[in-house]
Amino acid sequence: MKxxxxxxxxxxxxxxxxxxxxxxxxxxxxxxxGKPIFHLKGEKVYFxxxxxxxxxxxxxxxxxxxxxxxxxxxxPLIHIIRKNPLSLYSSKGIIGEGxxxxxxxxIFDPGLSDSTFWINAVMSKKMSQFNLYDTSRLAIxxxxxxxxxxxxxxxxxxxxxxxxGLMADSPNKxxxxxxxxxxxxxxxxxxxxPERPEMDNFLLSTYNKGKLKSNSSKKVFVTASLxxxxxxxxxxxxxxxxxxxxxxxxxxxxxxxxxxxxxxLVIPMDQKYGYKDVAVGENLIYALYSGQSQQExxxxxxxxxxxxxxxxxxxxxxxxxxxxxxxxxxxxxSLGKIYGLTTDEDPGxxxxxxxxxxx
Length: 359
Description:
single chain, globular
């Protein structure tokens, strides 16, 4: 009896020891969290007018496609695609530095009007407003970032008539400005990474850089990090952050090149990317995850095939596996569709139907 009793105690100790060595369960552990995984088949629609698409967004009844600035200067940088039926509506954006022209098309902002949208040209630090419905390729209004905003590389309008965005070198994750470029407030402070104490604010912002997106109501701003697996949800009304780390919890390797004010962060070419894009709906967040390195993308042509769906409060809702590789994502919850830019030789728009249970 004593031996049996001791054996049972020893077995319990081993079982508890084994449990303590397991990786901690996260919201990305779908085997234990009970959340569904959906496998979606998409339909590709090709537009010969779309040459080298890099970004996709949506506003109202339209998709907004932004081309790479490397296309011919005679070609438009922006395409407006009607969603239903999927068809080219018009093209806009003349490459140049003249009135109404843009140097590049980097950041899309739905703006505050139903009939217009804004494009932020990062190279020239100029925001240009376009009319959705006119036939002109030129912008109807321009705003150049004041000197105080020069280091802001992703900027959006707020419903309060201010700007909010990411800064290249700031103690804050997000910074808000007025139209004169005066800093109003900073939100969220960069926290030192214990394993990387040598990183300053500039290097920390680079290490955490990613896509910043908002929804049409501008109540929620979401940053999906490119190098590390992190999603940050900023509630503009409460001025609070929610951080979600995963699916990988380990920090990506990086080396610091240079010294003093000339330091840069170098990420290895074989390091797998985290999130490539994010779409913020009125109800849910759709984070496009890659898990591929630049080397793998160049070799296989596959970029991102996974979408994590979360609430605005950071609660996991579902995981979606796509049958087509995409590099950008836009979501229309009213139509129940996910749109993405395909990564094949002749890129087009992939359309996926969102499972009804998510809507």
